Amino acid sequence: MSTRFAQYLDPVKEAELADIAKRLTAPGKGILAADESVSTCGKRLQDINVENSEENRRKYRELLFSAEPDLNEHVSGVILFDETTKQSDSSGNTFISVLEKKGIIPGIKVDKGVVPLAGSLNECTTTGLDGLKERCEEYKAMGIHFAKWRCVLKISKFTPSYQAMIENANVLARYASICQQAGLVPIVEPEVLPDGEHDLETSRRVTEEVLAFQYKALADHHIFLEGTLLKPNMVTPGMQSSTPATPEQCAVATVQALSRTVPPAVAGVVFLSGGQSEEDATVHLNAINNVPLRRPWALTFSFGRALQASVLAAWQGKDENIQDAQNELLKRAKANGEASLGKYKGDQGGAAGNKSLFVKDHAY
Ligand code: 13P
């Protein structure tokens, strides 16, 4: 072995990371993002008039994770919030063990949230590197095998700036490196927010630029790409745009942006839903998987809002609605699993179907 390059990860760790990433993106499967912080979960609960108590958050997560039959048919992994990793179902089984028993890989949000990027035009970065190594090692010992860190980039006349793109790409790369050393597959999430009046072309060009910064930073930090997942926005016109685009046009723009910037070594791309309605997110994912361009990676989902809106609407905090709410989750998971194979027929509308889930300047 040349001494010019250090061996950053040992081959056993590399093989383990590649295997986790591969299982997370198994054909027809995707990820349930249930990592809402206490305050974000509170906003979801408030919408259905449920108090934001620790017990209600626990109950809601139990509803999600105990959906039967076969949540694991279309869900390969679940992203948890720290509080949830310490909670158990009503029979006393930890949520981590409940997921493991179903063959679903537990994951964890490790960032500490979006903060202002000083010296910029209202742009941001994400904090959480302090103590990250120790936290990742603890999570790994608990049976957690992948992680998420979200950065946000904003489209306006002068943004995203060079400053924001380089800073966010770099902090994501440092997070990814720490995760891999600890045996966690990092989900790298540089989200270009959908807020704005911009058209599809602008969205594609900005997404492309952000991803180019991202993969340069990952290379600079010696990241083992086969043991990573990318969680990008789909390329769509801004939420306030006056020039709409069809799902097919969005899909082509999305695959173009990815194919120009994301190396084929990356294990998979797991899209966020970004405030699209449940149905729109599924239809877009399906169209993406039918684009006649080269697509060397799995293209699947890691949805939060677009997997949970119908569930919350059906639940309303009532025990007698739990089964109905779980059925909504299974229905959305199946629809998105089919969409990840390009086989969604548009026949799985849920209780929140076409309702926009857009939240201005969305924080998680
Ligand atoms: P949405 O699917 O609600 O955009 O969220 C996914 C996520 O995990 C964002 O970090």
UniProtKB/TrEMBL annotation:
Pathway: Carbohydrate degradation; glycolysis; D-glyceraldehyde 3-phosphate and glycerone phosphate from D-glucose: step 4/4. Keywords: Glycolysis, Lyase, Schiff base. It is an enzyme of class 4 (lyase). Gene3D superfamilies: Aldolase class I. One of its GO terms (molecular function) is fructose-bisphosphate aldolase activity. Belongs to the class I fructose-bisphosphate aldolase family. This is Fructose-bisphosphate aldolase.
